[in-house]
């Protein structure tokens, strides 16, 4: 009985001591010294809230970007290919900016294009972190010895080179076999039906570069590249998450064409991008050339790829046939139907149609 009593008393004493220790450990101590000054002499809280204040401006940009094609990560699977990850993943793009190579590492666990891909976030911990990573002139995939600078001098403002960031990816890629004489009738053997400029050549189209001249005259260009940037148009006045702003969309089923940015120069544009019927004209030329390429067994209109070509069954085409097909693919992948560079695109299509009409 005494032993039992002693055990109970010991247990009570242990609980009491434990309680005192717990109270002593959880009691708030004296205030420590002030932390080191943050950016611009401000404390860390003030520094972080320069951007992380979740004011309306930040929320709107996040809201809009989430509706963009870039944010959808619909092509992130391509990050698992060394020749694709440089544009199809955040990690690959940053690597490409450092190495200036078209071949980057394979990223199986890749992030999609996001805020940090384009902006220098968490470099200075100020609002300067919203600056774009790289707006230097663009080295071309199809000719690495050539660079294009689409910096625009805006009256009353500083030069705007933001299109160059877009151009790091939105250009044609080189393919094999390569065309060395776009007017030549000698044959090249092609073993992939995906031969061509690939998708997204908008930067080249705006610059008036990348097409093969197959006719007697050089292709003309419009002045868009001298007065407009990708940002001016694709990030023009927004309408929710439908068009403009960080959505980068120019048209939607809800709002139709976002002509607000166009009106800065084209005050009489109306409500669609078909200014003076130019888009209708280009669409007509595009359809005409598509039919002619299909009739000559160059284009498969079901897949929009080269017809009758595979790795096990190579097919020969003349250099001029491939040049016309390349130009057609440039227009198809550009998707602006003349907006980016009406004269250049018109001349590309007309030159192709003229050649195809000359064939038996």
Adjacency order of strands in the biggest sheet:
1-2
Distance from N terminus to C terminus (CA atoms, Å) equals: 118 Å
> How confident overall, as mean pLDDT?
89
Give the helix level as a range of percent. 25-40%
Which percent range describes the beta-strand content? Answer: 5-15%
Rg over CA atoms: 29 Å
Which class do the helix and strand fractions yield?
mainly alpha
Low-confidence segments, given as residue ranges, are none
Please summarize the sheet with the most strands.
2 strands, antiparallel
Could you give the count of β-strands?
8
* DSSP helical segment count: 14
Shape: globular
Question: Could you give the order of the helices and strands?
Answer: HHHHHHHEEHEHHHEEHEEEHH
Descriptive report:
With 360 residues, the protein is mainly α. The chain contains 14 helices and eight strands. The protein has helices spanning 2-26, 44-48, 56-65, 69-72, 85-88, 90-99, 115-118, 163-167, 202-207, 224-227, 230-234, 278-295, 319-334, 342-358, and strands at 138-139, 147-148, 187-190, 251-252, 256-257, 299-300, 305-306, 315-318. The strands form four sheets. It has a two-stranded antiparallel ribbon. The longest helix has 25 residues, at 2-26. The protein is globular and about 95 Å long. The N and C termini lie far apart (118 Å).
Please specify the SSE layout and strand pairing.
Layout lengths: L1 H25 L17 H5 L7 H10 L3 H4 L12 H4 L1 H10 L15 H4 L19 E2 L7 E2 L14 H5 L19 E4 L11 H6 L16 H4 L2 H5 L16 E2 L3 E2 L20 H18 L3 E2 L4 E2 L8 E4 H16 L7 H17 L2
Antiparallel strand pairs: 1-2, 3-8, 4-5, 6-7
Helix pairs in contact: 12-13, 12-14, 13-14
């Amino acid at each position: 009985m005494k032993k039992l009593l002693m055990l109970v008393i010991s247990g009570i004493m242990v609980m009491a001591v434990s309680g005192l220790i717990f109270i002593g450990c959880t009691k708030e101590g004296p205030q420590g010294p002030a932390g080191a000054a943050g950016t611009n002499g401000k404390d860390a809280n003030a520094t972080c809230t320069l951007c992380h204040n979740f004011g309306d401006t930040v929320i709107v940009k996040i809201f809009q970007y989430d509706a963009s094609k870039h944010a959808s990560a619909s092509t992130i699977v391509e990050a698992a290919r060394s020749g694709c990850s440089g544009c199809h993943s955040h990690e690959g793009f940053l690597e490409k900016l450092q190495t200036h190579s078209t071949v980057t590492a394979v990223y199986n666990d890749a992030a999609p294009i996001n805020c940090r891909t384009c902006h220098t976030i968490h470099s200075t911990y100020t609002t300067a972190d919203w600056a774009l990573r790289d707006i230097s002139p663009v080295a071309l995939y199809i000719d690495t010895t050539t660079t294009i600078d689409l910096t625009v001098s805006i009256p009353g403002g500083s030069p705007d080179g933001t299109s160059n960031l877009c151009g790091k990816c939105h250009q044609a890629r080189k393919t094999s076999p390569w065309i060395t004489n776009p007017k030549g009738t000698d044959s090249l053997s092609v073993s992939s039906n995906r031969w061509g400029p690939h998708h997204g050549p908008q930067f080249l189209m705006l610059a008036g570069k990348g097409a093969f001249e197959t006719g007697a005259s050089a292709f003309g260009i419009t002045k868009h590249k001298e007065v407009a940037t990708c940002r001016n148009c694709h990030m023009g006045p927004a309408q929710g998450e439908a068009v403009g702003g960080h959505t980068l969309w120019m048209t939607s089923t809800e709002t139709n064409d976002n002509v607000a940015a166009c009106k800065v120069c084209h005050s009489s544009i109306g409500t669609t991008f078909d200014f003076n019927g130019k888009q209708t004209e280009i669409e007509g030329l595009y359809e005409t050339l598509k039919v002619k390429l299909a009739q000559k067994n160059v284009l498969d209109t079901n897949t929009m790829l080269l017809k009758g070509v595979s790795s096990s069954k190579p097919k020969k085409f003349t250099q001029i046939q491939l040049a016309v097909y390349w130009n057609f693919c440039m227009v198809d992948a550009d998707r602006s139907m003349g907006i980016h560079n009406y004269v250049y695109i018109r001349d590309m299509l007309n030159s192709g149609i003229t050649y195809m009409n000359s064939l038996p």
